[in-house]
Backbone:
């Protein structure tokens, strides 16, 4: 499946591919892309089951990687992934390291504890609808999914990712079945660490990444891996935008 792309920057510049997490879409990377597009052609596709891409199964890791490689023409690129997108980038680096010039993992979901993945998959099965974008964003703050980001930034991003249903209520534009499948994927063991330069950006208050997963990267990659901790929670490109951009620019510079 060719995916719906979001693009920034000069087509002739080196390619930087950004892969989003579950329930999200490629447009979430707009802020980062605008800062990085002076030196990169930034591509951020909507994954299968998300945004404006097709929703048909299968929704597993293999299918997502095939979709992304079908969509991205560059033979070699910098690959960035947030959350589940980070797991996909790690999988791609392990399977086809020659395609990955550098890997950037933003609070990646390399492996989620099975009981946590079950809880989150079960939560996803419930309907979630809202009377307004402001109400939906308030839930993000109330549940701790966003901690420090300016509310207007989150509202602007979510407004692009919501649609009105037949009942007049707003819902996020993604397929729940695809998200449940992704939580199952994230409960499986992570791939082997690929010997490519890798940056891992962690939210100081994130619940996701385990210390042993970071230690495994340090043990396998040595000087090839850089680990940076930034303020806030899991969504580092919102909670710690400036610090995240600084880490990316230093790594890519």
Residues:
């Amino acid at each position: 499946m060719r995916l719906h792309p979001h693009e920034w920057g000069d087509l002739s510049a080196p390619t930087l591919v950004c892969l989003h997490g579950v329930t999200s879409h490629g447009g979430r990377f707009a802020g980062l892309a605008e800062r990085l597009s002076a030196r990169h052609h930034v591509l951020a596709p909507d994954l299968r089951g998300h945004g404006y891409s097709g929703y048909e199964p299968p929704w597993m890791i293999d299918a997502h990687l095939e979709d992304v490689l079908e969509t991205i023409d560059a033979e070699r690129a910098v690959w960035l992934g947030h959350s589940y997108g980070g797991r996909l980038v790690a999988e791609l680096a392990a399977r086809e390291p020659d395609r990955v010039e550098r890997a950037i993992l933003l609070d990646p979901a390399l492996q989620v504890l099975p009981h946590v993945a079950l809880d989150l998959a079960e939560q996803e099965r419930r309907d979630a609808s809202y009377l307004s974008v402001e109400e939906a964003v308030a839930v993000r703050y109330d549940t701790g999914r966003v901690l420090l980001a300016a509310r207007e930034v989150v509202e602007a991003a979510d407004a692009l990712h919501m649609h009105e249903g037949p009942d007049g209520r707003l819902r996020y534009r993604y397929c729940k079945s695809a998200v449940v499948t992704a939580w199952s994927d994230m409960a499986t063991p992570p791939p082997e660490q690929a010997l490519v330069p890798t940056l891992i950006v962690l939210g100081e208050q994130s619940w996701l990444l385990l210390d042993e997963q970071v230690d495994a990267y340090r043990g396998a990659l040595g000087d090839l891996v850089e680990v940076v901790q930034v303020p806030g929670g899991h969504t580092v490109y919102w909670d710690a935008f400036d610090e995240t951009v600084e880490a990316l620019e230093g790594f890519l510079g």
